[in-house]
């Protein structure tokens, strides 16, 4: 026989002592004075007929009074034990939730700080980040400043019990950067050698590392260098050997730059003008005194003080800016050169006076002014297209339309009806009459004749005709058959199909032949593509769907869920929207690389470089910090989030 724990439920007042192996009455021990009951003194340890003894004690008046006193005291002094435990748990849960919310708020601020510094191309780490360092690097120094003025970070720093969980270490910075930078730009890859074999193998390797199938690649865009676009062993050719559907696109922006470069550099007068412009830039840039005189002449002429701009050897868009600046300040420039050649300001350098005289004679001639204004008019037509072709969201249809529009505009320049050059020549002679000298042209016999307006007109027409010829060559349909075919087909959605074919009945067979060629090229069913194309054309025109560009065409096809009914032609639309027109936006990452990978950051790792460059390139992307924090906190951390 022994004590049974089930007695606790039958007699809540019962208390058992394992040491004495006896039972006691808790309220009677607490409230009885000088009681002789064994439940209050020595206890009950005879287990025979214990139930009877417990019942008999429960019926006594003394016990009942003691139980009432006990219950009254419990009700007045403290809540029940289970209620007390539940309340404590609720309080702890509330404190934990508040701390988790505070941790998330602090982590969000840390991520924001990292993103801001990276987008400004600022280094994060310092050479010495120890507690005794006077300069711990940009991240830690800015973080300490935020802690001083931001109440959330200040409270987090005070309440955080994990002193070794500050979440400001380089490892945490790199992890947060990895979450922030999961967007468009992929990475920089270090190439052992700059040849087509190494570059193409690295491209294929990265595609596989990203879990992508190279057979799904439909387009690749590079510049026209032999390494990238060579028809025998270039990168594009090697990629096409892996996947014949990977259309190579010679970047439209690079191609157009070659048109301007090739057309204008063949003109001796244009080359001479820009060489002289670069020389006069260096002439003033190397001397603060000459620059001061130049600024003084601009103030006298009541024009905004500006400086000549340096030219770029390859980017003709930059030359347009330099030309605009030159024409805006040409009169003060000639006045400055006149002062310098006459020695009015006591320069004291004979070579400088000689150069100033040479520059004055050149930039004050009618030939130079006509050349500059002619170039200004031509570049004013080409620069908008040059800028537009560098936009990342440009599609095939819009690019083709803009190039055709430029060619038509240039053809109008050389037509008999156009009087643009006459206006240029008149402006040259009237506005700059005080400085312009008559330019004479030497003949083969040593005689000199005055250069006439017709001579200048012939030079102007030659420049324009060369540009038109190069546009026809560089942007012909044979240059990239898939691009031209897709562009021609998608243009039908911007017109009434039936009216178009009524006016040009021979075009319907041409469209079907292009569709068949594209279907074979992209491994689609030719019969289905032709039938589905006709049906989708009629569907769009029946519903009055307005299509302005290829990307809109693909978007509408996706919204209307045409892939369910017309899968083959929908694939063709998506391919047309995916094919790259320009690689200029991708090459801007090289400019960012020059800003980020400086001599002061020579120890930067490859992973850190990729992530910082990615964020710097994609400044326009809104970072979803809620998702970033959720991904970061999904791993086991020292702090609760």
UniProtKB/TrEMBL annotation:
Domain HAT C-terminal dimerisation: start-end pairs: 563-620
InterPro entries the record matches: DUF4371 (IPR025398), HATC_C_dom (IPR008906), RNaseH-like_sf (IPR012337)
Any GO molecular function: protein dimerization activity
DUF4371 domain sequence ranges: 39-181
Origin: domain of life: Eukaryota
The protein's name: TTF-type domain-containing protein
Organism: Ciona savignyi
